[in-house]
Amino acid sequence: MARKINQAFIVGTGRCGTSWLGQMLNSHAEVCVPPEIQLLFEVSGNGNRLFEQFSNIAPMGLEGDKIAAVIEKYCPHKLENFFDYKEFCLRKNTPRDSLKKFVQAFYSEIAIKHGKSWLIEQTPWYGLRLDLIAHFFPNAKIIHVIRDGRDVALSYARTPWWHLSPKLNLARWAREIKKITLDAGLYLTAGTYLEVKYEDLVANTESEIRRICNFLGINFDPVMLDPRGFIDYDVFCKFDMQEISSQAYSKWMGSKKKAAFSGSVQAWRKSQDMFQSPFTNEIISWLTHYEYEVDLNNSIHLNAPDYLPEYDLNSLEGISQSQLEQISSLDQMLQKQSENTELVTKDWIARGEQMEQLAHTNETLTEMLQKQSENTELVTKDWIARGEQMEQLAHTNRELISEVNQFKNSWYSSISYKIHNFKK
Q1: Do 77 and 237 contact (CB within 8 A), yes or no?
Q2: Measuring CA to CA, which residue among 211, 210, 207, 205 is closest to residue 220?
Q3: Maximum distance among all Cα pairs of the chain, rounded to whole angstroms
Q4: pLDDT tens, 255-274?
Q5: Do residues 189 and 196 make contact, with C-beta atoms less than 8 angstroms apart?
Q6: CA atoms of 107 and 397, how far apart (whole Å)
Q7: DSSP sequence for 112-133
Q8: Of the listed ranges 98-112, 213-227, 378-392, the one predicted with least confidence
Q9: What is the reported pLDDT for 257?
Q10: Helix (H) or strand (E) holding 9
């Protein structure tokens, strides 16, 4: 009987501690947490993943080399150094007629290869499509890691993925955490969903890890708190993580003396002028929902010389709450327009490829017509030559007939003369 593999996902807004939690859980003897795979579906126009590819396949399924190409292109890590996905994709018994069958077998095989009974995927933005996660893995457990949106916003400002403005990042954090939390209530049951606050995980690491183990139904192992045995996801990354990691995280990774690093907790207070009130109602609602402190009377003005005022939603004196909400709405519209522009660009590229293919086809047809024209000319010359030969043969035949007639006349004359003389 095949070994039963359990499935779980660590989700969140990103920059919220999912990788750190993954490192601790991966240390457990029964748990495998690969580097972020990011392959199930597309989010915010980041490219067609497995869900989109399988949505357009023929009944016989997607070819193994095509699946392997998608993994190689979109996984941000060198997954082949963790799991030989190409061999798995090309294997004859690998299910390729449906995405659900494929991903279930895919995740199970990763866990089995590492001798584990749990496979936990820690791609944060999978939380934005809990409907698909619940469909592909109906028995999976979801761990939602939540971090103060202002710290998330500052962290994302150091990356190329969201906005340069921490304030705009904070607005996006509110939208994403709202969707994850509300969708969890729609698609997940109480026994399959657990919320973990990053700040609690830092302050009370062991008790939080015990709570997570209890949620998963596995025994707590002290080795999960020993950073010397933590997996280093950075060695699998296709790009240099040092350029986007926080100083606190980099320092912790360099020493690994404690299971937790606290330097990034409430880092926003050092730059709180970037988060002066008023916030939008949505931001206030979700900060207070998770019991984060919000100072509604904050009136600190911008004074950082290198700060870009065009990214600040509060840079205009006396700006109203409704104007703030309009600006936030415009930001969402611009983001959607950017996504639409990318789709249009892809469409035009596809059209260009089709036109190039048609041009090549036309060129091929032109060559064929030219060859047919040359062949027609040869046939015409051949028939003309045949006609000349037939005319020559007809002329020769006429001459032969004339000679035969002359011979016959001469012969008849000779015979008649001899007969006449014989009678005499």
Answers
A1: yes
A2: 210
A3: 161
A4: 777 888 777 898 898 887 78
A5: no
A6: 90
A7: HHTT-SEEEE--GGGGGGHHHH
A8: 378-392
A9: 74
A10: strand 6-11
Rg over alpha carbons for the chain, rounded to the nearest Å, is 39
pLDDT per residue over 322-336, tens digit each? Answer: 555 565 566 566 666
| Cβ atoms of 212 and 194 closer than 8 Å | yes
d(CA 307, CA 331): 19
- Which two tokens mark 277? 């009130």
CA distance 321 to 308: 21
Bridge partners (DSSP) of residue 349 are none
pLDDT at 304: 33
CA 30 to chain centre: 29
- Distance, in Å, from the CA atom of 231 to the CA atom of 36, rounded to the nearest integer, reads 13
Question: In the block, which residue shows the tokens 């690491």?
Answer: 205
Using alpha carbons, select from 324, 274, 328, 326 the residue that is nearest to residue 302: 274
Query: Any idea where the domains of the chain sit in the sequence?
Result: 6-261
Determine how many CB atoms are found less than 10 A away from the CB of residue 154.
22
Pairwise CA distance, residues 312 & 170, whole Å: 11
Q: Was domain 6-261 assigned CATH 3.40.50.300? A: yes
237 DSSP assignment? B
Tokens of 102: 């494929």
Residue appearing with tokens 């597309």: 42
- Burial label, 294 (beta-carbon count in 10 A; 0-12, 13-18, 19+): middle
Scanning 256-320, the segments in alpha helix (DSSP H) are 281-289
158: nearest Cα among 240, 231, 77? 240
For the residues 355-374, what does the mean pLDDT come to? 74
Q: Output the average pLDDT for the chain.
A: 83
DSSP code for 390 = H
Q: Determine contact, residues 80/86, Cβ cutoff 8 Å.
A: yes
